[in-house]
């Protein structure tokens, strides 16, 4: 079910991008007043503004619904992970506080022996 909602969500996102790109901006009416455009539209003399705006709004509403559905699925997965035996953040943090980390610049045991041919660092 989640996969189906995700596929629909991606298709709706691509559709809304395409619809926004084919809509005319506010400055496009100035060119139509000089005789270009209104007689050559598929949607009539009023243009495609009303139709495309309504379709874009409908697709945006469905996109929001699929977003909420995906958020619900993610919440359910997060709850199920907690029940799977994975320790909580508080347990991990307390375990990390008990681990002793080496100090920078301290000699490391098990390193290079003192009697090697390597030059001494100055």
List the topology elements.
Layout: H1 2-22, H2 28-32, H3 49-82, H4 89-98
Helix pairs in contact: 1-3
How would you characterize this protein structure?
The N and C termini lie far apart (66 Å). The protein has a domain at 2-24 and 37-98. α1 runs antiparallel to α3. It is an all-alpha fold. The protein contains four helices and no strands. The chain is elongated. It has helices at 2-22, 28-32, 49-82, 89-98.
Q: List unreliable stretches of 5+ residues.
A: none
Strand-residue fraction? Answer: under 5%
Quaternary structure classification:
single chain
- The sequence of SSEs as H and E is HHHH
What class do helices, strands and sheet pairing give? mainly alpha
In whole angstroms, how far apart are the ends? Answer: 66 Å
The helicity comes to: 55-70%
Radius of gyration in whole Å, from Cα? 32 Å
- Total E-strand runs: 0
Helix count equals 4
Question: What's the rounded overall pLDDT mean?
Answer: 76
Largest sheet: none
Shape call: elongated
